[in-house]
Amino acid sequence: MMSKIDLTIRIAGNTTAPALSVIKGKGYEIEFYVSTDTGYARDCVSCYNARKDGRLFSATTAVELLGLIAMWEVRGDNWRGTKDDFKLSSEIDDSCVIYGPDGTIIEKFEKE
Predict the structure, then answer these.
(1) Would you give per-residue pLDDT tens digits along the chain (112 residues)?
(2) Nearest-angstrom CA–CA distance, 24 and 66
(3) 17 touches 23 (CB < 8 A)
């Protein structure tokens, strides 16, 4: 039985401004720039930086930046992955389902 979903949020254009407001509200200084020095012709890379208390967080989108800050707030300076983290990540990857354009399941990955 599937549980009822009361709210869905997905990264889209309308999540940038609220993410930046949350980061600013947490007291971070925010910097945004675009670099054309990517090593690839005609490519640009956007970068959001947030600084506070001697810490720098950097990401390509504001939502990613907020995610890094949230991860650090929960885990602190020892944020790096543990064996259990990598086990969980592998389990989630292994449960991947591929859907076709009509929403039907094409393939489900399973451990061999």
Answers:
(1) 568 999 999 999 999 999 999 999 999 999 999 887 666 655 668 899 999 999 999 999 999 999 999 999 999 999 999 999 999 999 999 888 888 899 888 876 555 5
(2) 10
(3) no
Q: List C-alpha distances in Å: 10 to 7, 50, 99.
A: 10, 22, 18
Of 59, 57, 52, nearest to 25 by C-alpha is: 52
User: Domains in the chain, ordered, with CATH?
Assistant: 16-79 (3.30.160), 81-112 (no CATH)
pTM: 0.80
Q: In whole angstroms, what is the distance from residue 82 CA to residue 26 CA? A: 27
User: 62 is written with which tokens?
Assistant: 């504001």
| Tokens found for residue 94 | 């292994």
Q: What is the distance between the alpha carbons of residues 87 and 85, in angstroms, rounded to a whole number?
A: 5
Assess contact for 46 and 34: CB atoms under 8 A: yes
